[in-house]
Amino acid sequence: MTLSGRVVASHGRHVVVEDNEGKRRICHPRGKKNQAVVGDLVQWLASEDEGSIESIDPRRNLFYRQDDIRTKSFAANLDQVLVLVAAEPEFSQSQVARALIAAEQAGIRSLIALNKQDLTQAFDKAWIRLEPYRAFGTQVLALGLRNHEDDLAQLRQALHHKTTLVLGPSGAGKSTLINRLVPQANASTNIISKALHSGKHTTTSTTWYWVDEEKTTALLDSPGFQEFGLNHIAPSDLASCMPDIKTHSDHCKFYNCTHVHEPDCGVRQALSEGLIDAGRHKIYVDLFAEMSAPKNY
């Protein structure tokens, strides 16, 4: 008889499954390929101290990226994606946009947190760079993870009773965020590493942490990435994944307008009137060109 569980970590072809009693064990997939990702609800069979994944329950959503080489799945069944950036080092507008686009395409809410509020001058500059996101409705939180408890309280409220995947470039403070919100995070990581027999190779694709004892709030730590491919999104669908572009795309003369060069384009008209940020439109144009280019696979 199969048991219900949740995938809380993965490494190669192995995953760690947490059962309904909170116990975790390594499980192996049936067949050659592991299709389960962190956040998946699965049916599994116990075999001594390990187990096997028999089936994966239907997903609410799946957050992933895809480039010319491969598809990388981060997690499934998410309530929201938190993009964590910092005043220093300077974050990439394109990377932030790509993450939000992927979330929008998957039907997942997104929010942004800007860390290192103590670096006043750099923080103010970075806060201004995030104005276009606030303008079209994305929640942007100000953080000082090392010494601003009030900011942490605001963040806790945004995460409460939700399953949140945390994305962020190196140096943004992702580890600090996890450790501040989940004091037992290191212990959980060690348990997972032991279960995976991974020794020094403790890096997992994504790791699930419970923030509260009631297990109603979860934080998922993701590995860093240099590139965030969006090959799984059709060029014609890009505008609908960018709220500020989408708002004006219904005012175009042509139904198949690319919003790049056509006359009587509602998006370009809004751009000329200052209703769309020029930097955001450039990101759209660059991404549209990238998505429209011939693929190498």
How would you concisely characterize the structure shown here?
This protein is α/β, with parallel strands linked by helices. It contains nine helices and 13 strands. It folds into three domains: 3-56, OB fold (Dihydrolipoamide Acetyltransferase, E2P) (Beta Barrel); 62-221, P-loop containing nucleotide triphosphate hydrolases (Rossmann fold), CATH 3.40.50; 235-292, Orthogonal Bundle (Ribonucleotide Reductase Protein R1, domain 1), CATH 1.10.40.
Tally of alpha and pi helices:
9
Q: CATH topology of the largest domain, anyone?
A: Rossmann fold
Q: What proportion of the residues form beta strands (DSSP E)?
A: 25-35%
- Count of the separate structural domains: 3
Overall geometry = globular
Mean pLDDT score: 89
> N- to C-terminal separation?
42 Å
Radius of gyration equals: 21 Å
Major β-sheet profile: 6 strands, mixed
**At the fourth CATH level, what is the homologous superfamily of the largest domain?**
P-loop containing nucleotide triphosphate hydrolases
| CATH class categorisation of the largest domain | Alpha Beta
General description of the model:
- By secondary structure, the chain is α/β, with parallel strands linked by helices.
- The chain has three domains: 3-56, OB fold (Dihydrolipoamide Acetyltransferase, E2P), CATH 2.40.50.140; 62-221, 3-Layer(aba) Sandwich (Rossmann fold); 235-292, Probable gtpase engc, domain 3 (Ribonucleotide Reductase Protein R1, domain 1).
- Helix content is 29%, strand content 26%.
- It is built from nine helices and 13 strands.
- It has helices at residues 93-105, 120-129, 131-135, 149-159, 174-181, 185-195, 243-249, 266-272, 278-292, and strands spanning 3-11, 14-19, 24-29, 41-47, 50-56, 62-66, 71-76, 80-86, 109-115, 139-142, 163-167, 207-210, 218-221.
- The strands form three sheets. A six-stranded mixed beta sheet has the order 10-9-8-11-13-12, with helices on both faces. It has a five-stranded mixed barrel with strand order 1-2-3-5-4.
- A hairpin with a 2-residue loop joins strand 4 and strand 5 (50-56).
- The chain is globular and about 65 Å long.
